[in-house]
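Late entry, written up from scratch paper. The run itself happened at the end of the previous shift, but nothing got recorded in the book at the time, so transcribing now.
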Amino acid sequence: MRILKLGKYKGLVAVLALFLVGSAAMLVTNYQFAVRAAESLTAIRGISAQQLQPQVIAASAQLLRADLGNRRYLGRALTDLKSTVRSFDEALAGLDRSATASAGRAGPFEFAPLASAPSQRSLQELRQVWGDYRERLKPIIDFTGNPYVETADRGTQLSAPGLKLNSQLDEAVRFGVARHGEIAKLVASLSANVESETQTRASQLRMYLVAGMAGAVLLFVVAFGLLGKAAARERSIVKAKKETDDILHTVNQGLFLLDKNLDIGSERSEALERIFHRTDFDKMSFERLLRGIVPDKTLETALEYVKLMWGERVNEKLIKTINPLGEVEVSIDAGNGQMETQFLEFDFNRVHSDGRMSRLLVTVIDVTRRVELARELQESQEKAQAQLDLLLHILHVEPRQLTGFLEESEVAMKMVNSILKEPAREESAFRAKLDGIFRQIHSVKGEAAALGLKTVESRAHGFEEALQELRNRHILSGNDFLPLVVKLDDLFGHLAQVREMVSRLADLRVAMAGDSEGAMPADRDNNDFGPEGTLVQAAPNLASRGAASVSDGLESSLKSLAQRIASEQGKKVKVACVGLEQVPNDYRRAIKDISIQMVRNCVAHGIEAPAERASAGKSPAGSITLKFEGKGAEGFEFVCQDDGRGLDAEKLKQTAVKRGLMTAEQAASLDDRRALSLIFMAGFSTQEQVTRDAGRGVGMDIVRNLIQELGGKVGVSTTVGRFSRFRIWLPAAAKASRAA
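Output as recorded:
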């Protein structure tokens, strides 16, 4: 049962309680005195009425004796005497009962005058005297015989009983005459005692009433004083309440209190309504407030956290570090049927009252703008860092390679744009468009990876993810290709940014060369040295570079690509290139794309980790060899070989079944040669997870298409655990020009 807390009014309530108790006591006392006074008055009247009874009894006895002497009838006189004696007996018995009953009463005004010592003495003496008198009257009032006898000579005479009665009457009359004054005096004394006791109690009651009235006046004075203080406090509270309301109306933070049942209190800031776009907070639980605007998992965690805050033993500062609502994304109905995304920050602080925790103060801040600014800042920093990284990457790329990449990428982007514009209605046409776009984007991605242009590579990788998502759909339509236009525009814009940066570097080189003419020697590659020896690469000059320079650049790119992939996968690799300077111009683009894809596949799929190679008795670093050579009129041969784990025909068939490229029965019917050809199927990859270097099943499909377009062919030889070799035959350049 909850105890009523009086708070600031307990003093006033105590005064009022005292006043009520005092008034009740006075009323009860007055009532008791009135009752006792009425009883005393009755007793006085009864006692006064008994003062003459002894004389009446004596007179009745004398009258009875006279009647007896005159030989008259005694019946009436005896009856009167009996009645008078019985009346006095009853009066005396009543006084005894009153004295006995009043003796058990308690309290200052539960007075008992007949129980007082004087009254008790008078009663005792009265009982004794009356007892003696009663003993003498008893045979008289009990007389039942015939007091007379008739004689012939003397007429009516007293009989023997009559003589005895006469003797008893003489004695009773003598005793009554002698004692009736004493009895009357004792009765009068009792009456005086009762009257005196009553007057004494009346005087005490008057004093008590005066004291009660004085106390009541004092209580009224105290009550008015307390009321004044309460009014002052109330004014102070009203003022504080107004100030609190002003604060709650003004602050931009949402403020409210949570009780132990996690219900929201009645006092809250007005900003809470603006933040949550609602006003129905009365009797709302914290769970209901968050339900629907945060994920269920977040809500569950938040409720557990708030319950922990109620644990007195839990360190408040420590638990604040795990606040799941420190910065939470919420979706709130803005009132127009649209969900508005905001970021809110909840802060919880314990509120203590009388040394015990009573509430949780919750502060809610809309930090959406802060989060947006932080994101904008982060994006700006990332963009600046990306531009810096891009600049550093550009500075490390051989100018001719970079220029060639930009020109080829632009051609590829235009090709993608043309493919996107091609009309298509059938499913096969849509699939063909996807394959064509995939080939172009994958080529750009591969060369960007080889050159170390990570920003271009990441955008191309994102483009591939969008393409793969379309590939996985069962049915395609023209509208499905619209998002690709945005991806293409982003990639176009970024390549234009790279081109702009290259152009500015060229302008910078010209400016620096003009400022330091004759002061800085040129290096053997026609690069200039800028201030403090900084290398400033020469502006691209395609005519001044030979095939050897192109091959050197490709070899360097392939080695960098291999080292980057190997480093990410915890592997070691060495790349050797032979004869790349012999690649004719008609094949240069194709050989570059094929080389990049081959190196990526060798490192990602073929080369083992150092520990695995060590257990197989191999050197820690894997070996990849690329060799291009002319075969005279027969054309050209391009070989890519690694000393990795080789190709397992059975594993290839299992992968094809797992990816849904064929049934288990179809796979079982394949021989090893046909099983090895599975690696050239679109969508085939032994990689479980998609990365930027493997997993889509696109690379070898593109290699196969390039070789087919060039009119060439490819052969695969392998030994499980030892090596894999890809041998590509290409026709003479003049023969392949049409295909190119």
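The chain has a mean pLDDT of 77.
(Scratch paper discarded after transcription.)
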